[in-house]
Amino acid sequence: MAEINHQVGIKAPPEKIYELLTTNEGLSKWWTNDISGAGEVGALIQFRFNGGGPDFLVTKLIPNKLVGWKHSGNIPELWVGTEILFELKVVETQTFVRFVHSNWKESSDFMAHCSTKWAVFLLSLKDAVEKGTGKPFPNDIHIDHS
Amino acid sequence: MAEINHQVGIKAPPEKIYELLTTNEGLSKWWTNDISGAGEVGALIQFRFNGGGPDFLVTKLIPNKLVGWKHSGNIPELWVGTEILFELKVVETQTFVRFVHSNWKESSDFMAHCSTKWAVFLLSLKDAVEKGTGKPFPNDIHIDHS
């Protein structure tokens, strides 16, 4: 199984970041502006990009420490069976966000694309918390010309 | 073994990108401004960040298609034994850069940090080619406050 790993450090208490990982309003500040369904464990979050996009089931929540999602449905096809974990760790004056998108069947070009794109969105999360403005879709940074 | 995967698409012919992966002047436009030793297979490239940094042995070169490096020396410790591959693939009007940093002993927090940082540098490579100005160290985008 292949996986994507990232880590960013954000100058903010974990409570501020946790909110941006667990509410529709918070998630829409950094990933995509069209989000519904965020909630407690068992909630199905619908992330939409021009109408289509993935659903994730909320599987783990430890307030201000951990957020776990499991992909649900069939879009995108290569995400079926994958899981996402955000771990928050406070070190001195910053909170590290340790991100893992795991359980990919193989290390494909599409996985590589998603890896770079996740970095862009995690830096969008960082900016959303630190500067008040992230770059969620459709204002996200483009990593290619497709 | 763990690995880092990325992919960016650059609106330029592969020749322009290959030059930025194989010459001191080209590499200094996007990764770090202090580079020496770039050359043919067998060359030892020294990448320096405030004096210290990794060495990479050039192991594979297929003009305008592939660049392979093997880490040499002991800095950083967790990079010992790792390898880096850049593959260039032309699709219509863009050239995709498929990046793999492989052979990590484990998926550590440091590897996750490097994964995010590689995304930043590959976007710096993209900007260097497309806009003429990248963000090599010490002008690189910071992903934490360490």
From TrEMBL, chains A, B:
<feature type="domain" description="Activator of Hsp90 ATPase homologue 1/2-like C-terminal">
    <location>
        <begin position="11"/>
        <end position="130"/>
    </location>
</feature>
<comment type="similarity">
    <text>Belongs to the AHA1 family.</text>
</comment>
<dbReference type="InterPro" id="IPR013538">
    <property type="entry name" value="ASHA1/2-like_C"/>
</dbReference>
<dbReference type="Pfam" id="PF08327">
    <property type="entry name" value="AHSA1"/>
</dbReference>
<protein>
    <submittedName>
        <fullName>Activator of Hsp90 ATPase 1 family protein</fullName>
    </submittedName>
</protein>
<dbReference type="InterPro" id="IPR023393">
    <property type="entry name" value="START-like_dom_sf"/>
</dbReference>
